[in-house]
Queue: 4 jobs
Job 1
Amino acid sequence: MEAGQGKNKESKNVWLISGLISIFLLSLFWSVDASFFYFFAAIAVFCFFQYFRSGVKVQWKKEEPPQWEREEPPQYKKYQFQSGQFGRLFKEINKEFSASSGEFKGRVFGKALMGIFSIIFLVAFCDTLFSDDVLNFPDSYYRGNEFIEAGQYDSAAYYYRLASLENPDDPEIYFVRGSAFSYMKNYDSAVILFNKVLALDSIHNDAQYAKGYALYQLQRYKEAIDATSKIMEYNPSDLNAMLLIGDSYYTMGQHESALQWYTSAYDGGYRGALLSHLMAYIYDTQGKSAEAIKFYQEAIGLDSSKVEIYTRLGELMPGEDGNFYRKKAMQFSQESN
């Protein structure tokens, strides 16, 4: 009788201390993220529940184990993992504590782990289900998304406007609204909206690029370069930004500057027929035939329909080396006629 009461008191103290530690951790980490608050609050509730529950006196005779050792209570079965590995793990834990006092601690430890794992899973599921990313947007935002997918950009812009009236401080809503105007080629309005996004979130990578692209379409190339270059300050490996800056320089006729950015994108792993063609053309205008031939060949390897590339390679590669390209260019010419 006295031994049973001692063990029961010991388990109560374990749950009480665990609950107090959970409250301390809750107060320490709640400001970091809401998930910490829910997690430690759930742990604390579980521990205090076990604390008050273990207050019931347990009596047994020395020669006979208590009833809960012969038949597991429903609570234990409810939270028990079905995986064979976890089942074997907890059996091994109980075997390690084969003595009467050790067996009692093993049971308590196994139940505690089961309860904690279940709470972690429940909290993670609820945090995913009810996260701000899911609940933060009004219905009009999702309605706008439906019109975007249907290609009805004017209707999408209308619903995004309604969403921005409901959530005036959400940069994502201004971004999708600006994107709708870009789809409609209303780039002036798009730039205004992307500026609103950046006023709320200065490192919004997508908005910064979209603004640069809109400025490029408005033929405001220097502004496009300035806008897109800001991406490189916090994401220096952004290949799309490199290409857009290169296109802006190329369109302004500053081919040397354009080539530097194109080369950076190429070295970064970007491959495309248009990029190879542009780099080949710039090298060609600089009189660097070997480099031009290399990138012309890469370009037709990625897109074999470019007749002008075959023609130019035939000119750059006289003799037998250029026969293939001259014949191919002639073939394309005859097919077009």
Job 2
Amino acid sequence: MRKDFRGKRVLILVENSSYPEDGRIFHEATTLSEAGYQVSVICQSRPNRPWRELRDGIYVFRYPYVISGKGLVSYLWEYGYSLLAMFYLSIIVLVKPGFDYIHAANPPDTAVFIAAFYKILGKRFIFDHHDLSPEIYQIKYGANKKIHRLLYSILVSLERLSCKLADHIIATNYSYKAIEIKRDRVPADRITVVRNGPDTHLIHPVQPNPELSGRAKAVLAYLGSMAKQDGVDHLLRALHNLDQCFGYHDWFCVLIGPADDMKGLQKLAHDLGLADRTWFTGYLPNESWMSLLSAVDIGIEPAPANPLNEASTMAKLMAYMALMKPSVAYDLREHRVTAGDSALYARPNDDVDLARQCIRLIDDPDLRKRMGEIGRQRVVDQFDWKYQKEPLLSAYASIAHK
């Protein structure tokens, strides 16, 4: 007999990644499905993926990904195209299998227009606040020109509109919740914090990659997307400082993940004399990057101090911790909330001190081991996704009868 999902059908919109690659969306969709919801996801596509499939009980609808450039026009084109593509697919989902909740994950915050349309039809709206879109824009384009100041203010308005129209808001941490209360004027009882916790049954140490194990006295790693706000240029300059300031030459660094400007980062590594000791892998699936990280000694989080990074929880820190790797990061508020004593902290935006903290770990294997154990236990005890399931389901339950 076909299960009756009336009143428990969810459509999740995500623009800046695909499914199931986006770990947070994967966890949310799976949790809702296991709790008896019928879940559909609309996202961008990946090579060799069908535009429509039923994957482990979850309906997935994908639109073709369009590679955008670096400029403002490309930025507007990407988000405008994605908005239209998601709206088109949402109509298909509305017909079959249908939805009662529209769960929009940002960035961008333009999905609020789709949500607003469906609220007219009686659908409930959950705004899943992943990133601070205005701050991301400001980091990418600055605020020197009038057009950039105007677009920043528009993005703030879209964030406020998303929060105003949402029946409930999911924040990734308490820093975001504070912003939603202060900047977006949202009552605290309309916000639920659901952190980006890894599933430690899936993310854990595995057989180390033999190509990387023992590659040098110290093997360092960076994991994640490489955009301007992520500070990979800080990491490369810190590696240069290991050589030039401190005379440490026996190291190797693997940088795992997609980049907005891969050629530019590779050129910077070459110009700094690092090309033969850095490996840019590009995007890798979980099983591949876990094998690589299991072979490294130290994880690096080089995100510089700015309003975005001070407030954001970095998934890479939790990945390092889950794989029992100590980390080095700039001393930012949410870095300490996440990593605690499993990381060493450098003075913000000081890449010489970032290198100095790396040296402390390079020279002390016992400290690396202790910090790795602290990190793994911290994830298991506090941040594992199992602790995020109840808040997520409570957020849905709070608006079930609105």
Job 3
Amino acid sequence: MKLPRLDLGWQERTYDVVQPLSATEILWNTHDRLTQVCSTQYLALPWSLEFQEARRRICAESPPSDFGSLGSHYLAGTHPAKVAFERSVATACQAEDAVGFSSGWSANFAVGELLSTCYDVVLSDVRNHNSLIRGLARGPAAIMPIDLATHTIATALEPHEGKRVAVVATSIHGLTGETVVLKGAAEGFQECLVVLDEVHSFGMLGRDGLATPEGAKPDVRVVGFSKALGVAGCVVCGPAAFTHALRQLGSPFVFSTVAPPVLWNLCAEALSVCRHMGAQREKALSLAKALRKGLESAGITFSGEHHITGIFPPPTTSAAALEEALRKDGFYLKVSQFPSRPRELPCIRVAFNPFHTDELIRPLITSLASQA
């Protein structure tokens, strides 16, 4: 038997065994109890008493069929729970229509696949997630990488006048916390479509969590439920013509296995609870702001503006040694390296949730500083 030869070209990944014990603590590799400060459950919503009550009610009332997958959309159709959920998200986001996917990766891949198939040129922000990049590679469109933090949309579109152009960006980078504000509009380019991947910002911005950075008004919003809302799934909201095309051409939608109907009911409850968590959002944002102030005082290089803070250790620092040192100090953090990050710029994501306290900030900074 011939087995694949593994020649990665980068340091081999390790996958820890992590069991959440509370909103702030995990059990690492079955024996070490650590404070986690890097979870993407930005609101720790599953630990909310209101959501726990809703979860118990939904599970008790759901028939057995709601706990199993029905197969692919193409073979098994869809389910009333999913249709109702999609409509509720479209209404919340003030969109014509919405289509749900089982994960943010599959949603982004399908969006990229559609854009690269139906448009002549796609302007892709340099911070876009791997899922978008892989999807964009599927079609014949010319993919033009661009830094939308420094370019206005109008300026970026000028060389492509007369063509069908799409612009796609990530609202908040999931590792570094960098925010992409879509500067300017696309007036005069009627064939231009603007898409914003909001997987890491949805649920965290504005009074009810549904705002976009600086009030951006994209044509299509990709909103995730596996981050701030703490469940699973992702929804693409936008014009009905776009979502119709996505249902026809998006291979993850057409062919992949559909999540069980009970998930869509849980997602609907998570969205409802999230919209009333203004105080919890403020707490998470306040902790992040205090962390960045302390990092600045300690001379530690960082990025981020909202709830995510990216910390940049020296490239010469051993990721494994740094993670181990942080664990010895009681903190669970991971160093993202190549190919997730440029070789010369590894990054640690820190994200506090409302259950964390200010007392954690100083010890965390001290631990990080001692490894620099």
Job 4
Amino acid sequence: MPRVRTAAALLAALALGACASTPGPDANNDPYESTNREIFHFDQKFDQWMLEPSAEYYDDYVPQGIRNGAHNILSNLNQPAVFVNDVLQGEPKNAGETIARFTVNTTLGLAGAFDTAARLGLPPHTNDFGLTLAKWGVGEGPYLVLPMLGADPPRDAIGQAADFAFDPTIYVHLKAHIWWAVGREYLTILDTRARNLDTVNEIERSSLDYYATTRSLYRQFRDNQIHNDKPPPEE
């Protein structure tokens, strides 16, 4: 879910006190910058016209308890893909905690509506196949921005497709399966946007070049994830 990662990147980088640097054009690895900026502008308009108003309505009129439950369910649905990537990265401790979290929250947590596992000492963590590829030594590739998806360089785009395949719910043949998939994706984006309305908007308002800021923070965020939330070693 690239757009979710883009929002998360802005928030995490801000929380860590990271600031967007201004490297030279080659360091940006953004050969399609002109096209990327046009798509980024379209995505901004889509956010202003559709996502932000929906997120504001969701935040204002849906009770906090229901929003928290929806967030927990969405997180729980991602656990199978997180588990597969934990295994592929050779992280048995994380894999064990992930499967334990999924089991506890799906049962005691009422299909994931309550994060019972966290109360039992099993904290959540995220993982995806884009990170798996990075840890296998695959390069990010040129920076790309996709319509309504946000930042999605080739490595992360391939990772997104793989994570989709890792999701067991796609193999359940329901009559309205496409609407389930679309609805789940939109609710995930809506949940992320609603939980961080003021912060994301403040970053946009304070950026001299919002596109360049987003590109820099996205990469800082992903690099931080690749190195397990530790700064990468200095050259």
